[in-house]
Amino acid sequence: MSFLIVFAIVLAIGLAAFVIGRQRAVAQDDGTVKAHSRPHYHGWWAFLTGVVPAVIFLASWGVGANAYLNSFVHSALPADVADGTVAHEDLAAGLVKSLANGLGRLDDKERAALPSTFAELQPMLSAKGVALAPDTQDYMIPIAVEANRTSDRLSLISAIVSIGLALVGSVYGLSRISPRTRARNNVEKIMLWGLVGASTIAIVTTIGIVLSMLFQTIAFFEKVPPMSFFFGTVWDPRFAAAGSGGAEGQFGLIPLLAGTLYIAFVALLVAVPIGLMSAVYMSEYAAPRVRALVKPALELLAGIPTIVYGIFALVTLGPFLRDISAALAGGTPFIQAQSILTAGLVMGVMLIPVVSSLSDDIITAVPRALRDGSLGLGATRSETIKRVVLPAALPGIVGAILLTASRAIGETMIVVLAAGVAANLTLNPFEAMTTITVKIVNQLTGDLEFNTPQTLVAFALGITLFALTLVMNIVALYIVRKYREQYE
Amino acid sequence: MTDISLDTLTSSTAPARRDIGLRKRYAAERRFRLYGVLAIAVGLAFLAIMLTSIVTKGYTAFWQTTVTLPISFDAKIIDPDNKRATDPDVLITANYPKLAENALIEKLGIDPKDRATVRKLKGFLSEGSRVQLRAIVAADPSVIGTTRNVDILAAANMDSAYKGQIDLSVPESRRKVSDQQVEWMNKLKAEGAMSEHFNTGLFSFGASSRPESSGLGVAIIGSFFMMGIVLLLALPIGVAASIYLEEFAKKNRFTDLIEVNINNLAAVPSIVFGLLGLAVFINFLGLPRSASFVGGLVLTLMTLPTIIIATRAALAAVPPSIRSAALGLGASKMQMVFQHVLPLAAPGILTGTIIGLARALGETAPLLLIGMVAFVADYPKTPFDPATALPVQIYMWANEAERAFVERMSGAIIILLVFLMAMNIVAIVLRRRFERRW
Q1: Residue B313: CB partners within 8 Å, gap ≥ 6?
Q2: How far is A460 from chain B (nearest CA, A)?
Q3: Is the per-residue pLDDT at B231 higher than 90?
Q4: With an 8 Å Cβ cutoff, is A191 touching chain B?
Q5: B243 interaction partners in chain A (CB closer than 8 Å)
Q6: N vs C: which end of chain A shows fewer Cβ within 10 Å?
Q7: In whole numbers, what is the pLDDT of chain B averaged over residues?
Q8: Is ipTM > 0.90 here?
């Protein structure tokens, strides 16, 4: 029985318990004893006692059964495969799993007369729309059949137990109904736990991010020494064919980091002056009507997905800059179509609204009295802004720029499309350089074999990126928060 | 009263003003203002250029050239051995493009024996005619032996030529459309057999290696599934988390940690969420690659901080007097929150949710890592089937070499932007309509 059907049955039992509980509570209220809770709270309590334990069981059993099946498949593989490299074993286990998945789509009659060779099996499966890898081996078929049988057994047990739990729980909840039962308090206690649980998801996500990347990074550093990753100046991962033993590549972070920082720097050169000036104009000069019109228009820039910026850089701006440079130099273009300049420019424009909305908040937070004092002493508006408002807002603006820089470093789609894929070390902004995010995408898209340094390196890059942006974000948030308190 | 004559006044000229650099300072003031205007102008100009360049490249994608041909479903070609009653594969593998080609030969009045001329027909009609005619025969096998008018898609190059996007002054050998084909095209156009229609295929087709028969159908369904999952998961979880933090949590280490985490997650690069999805959902939990369910989960985690921040702001804006009144009438704290504060904060929460959804809809990078860059031709039936998403489909078309794909890609961007615009407008309208100032 599938997971979803069991879940639906459990839910149905809970709803039945709710209806019955509510009616019982109404029936018991004869006016002689003052009821503690309103009837629907009794209903909800019966619902919760039925559903919550059953769902918790169902979820944990599901995860456990998955892990058990995994280890079952691994142990069932013949010794010569199991002794091989980890990648090979994982590959075989993956094939068995997709085979088992495919077998699940056959009907009973076909399953009874299952052929013993893959060559006979494949046409049967492809008739059902199941495409399997051609290197599936004959010995995998019995393992897959056995895995399916085990999985059926496990899900049957889980279905019986969780439906039983739901029934027992509902009956227990219903049996406790009486006018003086504190049903409302019970329900609210569980609700509060639900709220606490929801709010911890942020922490769980962060832990998940760190742990998931950490494990893969450790696996990567077992194959490539950390020193040659962090201080290597050559990036040449050399994709190896699956199972060939893996040619050693070179994984130097330096060229990627340099490209990332260079492009982010160019982007900030564009975004900070323009964003800051437009924020100043918007908050200090613009008439309310102009502001009401222009501000949403600038925010529109922030609402456009980054892939659109990337495409614009790739299709329009890049070729345009190349042609212009060709015309200027008389023939050979000195700006490549994919270059630091193109990517930086477009990313800079994308960041304008980020800078301007952050600094707009900060500038408006500067107290009126400071401005009035300066204006009263005879300073012009621009002098007030330059000598009073901006210095007062400086810490906040630095925080805003840091936040923007972290956005620039983590930006992916623009650089994937506009910055190029060659890992250069160059100072010339007209050439192509690549970034950490581009390489993460490159290493992990397409057919990939897990557990090779070529794919694991993406996680090492990811954790570097995460650490880099984390530090910038925390510092920036600290500065911004501290600054806000100063004037509140 | 005597008039004072002018000459009795000793001096009417003002004393010479001291030069305190006012002129310079005012000039600086004007310059500063100008910089501000310029900055805004640069931003808006870029926005305008970008949108115009995309619209001018993409609006033609909404039209598609078709050739209306009287196709005779000749049993000799579809089923030469006459065994379709016993072997259903015959109808699937039949040479349908031949039917279209024959119809075209007849329409143009070419001698079918003139091999050289017939060969030039190659690349005039889309190879997609195979699927199209097969669908007609499969739906109604009795059509075999009869003749019926069918709108066959023109091949991408002919489509471009028809739309006037191919420069015909270039020597014949250097363009993708031959003079003969152009001549035929003009003939068919004059007869009214070749014409442009609204391109419904752009919205309904799945992935294809041919531009004219590729579309956003799978991507739209995939994006729709993902938005549904994000809405179902992120909204309740986000609202619950905000209620706890805003209404119940005491200020202590634990809640501080949660706050730092939420603010930080809002600024984590989106690609990191893709790595999380790949490592946890796909490798650890064994969920299928390319499935919109996994994409939805990843986007949920990404959208949560946005929704939480917006919801907390909305909850904090509800005045304390409402809370005191509810508590004073004997409501429990939970009742106060759910029956009084939450309904009043709902418009703000909704606005934040829609804006979060819009951001999730345009997000590409994490989806690339969980394998949504896939060639999916069939509609996904459940969120667990392979699918793509709108921005991912745009990315995939950007990597194609043919010029007709650039047109489709720009068209897809227009569709994506229209979706986003609609969502943002709904958010703005909701805010205007229901926002209460206390």
Answers
A1: B348, B352
A2: 11
A3: yes
A4: yes
A5: 195
A6: C
A7: 86
A8: no
Residue from A469, A478, A341, A356 nearest A405 by CA: A469
Nearest to A164 by CA among A57, A42, A47, A16: A57
Beta bridge partners of B64: B197
Touching B: A residues 445-474, CB under 8 Å: 445-446, 450, 458-459, 462, 465-466, 469-470, 473-474
- What amino acid is encoded at A336 in this protein? Q
Q: Could you tell me the two tokens for B428?
A: 């703005």
- φ/ψ of residue A251, rounded to 5: -120, 75
Percent of chain A residues past pLDDT 90, beyond the cut: 34
Residues of B in contact with A216 (CB under 8 A): 279
pLDDT tens digits, A27-51? 888 878 888 888 889 999 999 999 9
Cα–Cα distance, A487 to A3 (Å, whole number): 55
Are B404 and B160 in contact, with CB atoms under 8 Å apart?
yes
Determine contact, residues A147/A96, Cβ cutoff 8 Å: yes
The Cα A405–Cα A253 span in angstroms is 19
Contact state of A410 with B362 under an 8 Å Cβ cutoff: no
Q: Is the pTM of this model over 0.90?
A: no
Pairwise CB contact (< 8 Å): A66 & B265: no
Supply B137's token pair: 């025969």
pLDDT tens readout for residues A173-209: 888 888 888 889 999 999 999 999 998 988 898 898 8
Residue A235's pLDDT band, with cuts at 50, 70 and 90, is: confident
The single-letter code of the amino acid at A136 is T
Confidence check: pLDDT of B322 > 90: yes
Cα–Cα distance measured from residue A307 to residue A33, given in angstroms and rounded to the nearest whole number? 66
Collapsing DSSP states into helix, strand and coil, what is residue A91? helix
HSE-CB of A28 using CA atoms within 13 angstroms: 24
Tokens in use for A125? 């499966």
Tokens representing A218 are 């450790």
Average pLDDT over residues B47-52: 92
Which run of H or of E encompasses B230? helix B217-243
Inter-helix orientation angle A453-486/B253-265, to 10° = 120
Average pLDDT over residues A83-98: 66
Q: How far apart are CA B299 and CA B225, in angstroms?
A: 12
Contacts of B35 in chain A (CB under 8 A): 277, 281
For the record, the structure tokens of B191 come out as 């007869």
pLDDT at B414 over 90: yes
CA distance A348 to A333: 23
pLDDT of residue B436: 73
Kindly tell me if the per-residue pLDDT of A302 is higher than 90.
no
Name the nearest CA neighbour of B284 among A450, A386, A236, A320.
Answer: A450
Q: Are A39 and A187 in contact (CB under 8 A)?
A: no
**A positions 246-275 inside 8 Å of B (CB):** 273-275
Number of H helices, E strands in chain A: 20, 2
User: Phi/psi of residue B140, each to 5°?
Assistant: -150, 85
SS3 call for B371:
coil
Alpha-carbon gap, residue B303 to B126, rounded angstroms: 42
User: Radius of gyration (Cα) for chain A, nearest Å?
Assistant: 31
pLDDT tens-place string over residues A12-23: 999 999 999 999
Q: How confident is the model at residue A228 (pLDDT cuts 50, 70, 90)?
A: confident
A437 and A332 Cβ atoms separated by less than 8 Å = no
- Token readout for A391 is 């210095």
Q: What separation in angstroms does the CA of B221 have from each of A142, B199, B301? A: 37, 18, 21
Q: Considering only CA atoms, which of B110, B247, B80, B289 is closest in space to residue B184?
A: B110
What are B374-412's pLDDT values in tens digits? 888 888 888 888 899 999 999 999 888 777 888 889 999
A 401-420 residues inside an 8 A Cβ radius of B: 403, 406-407, 409-413, 416-417
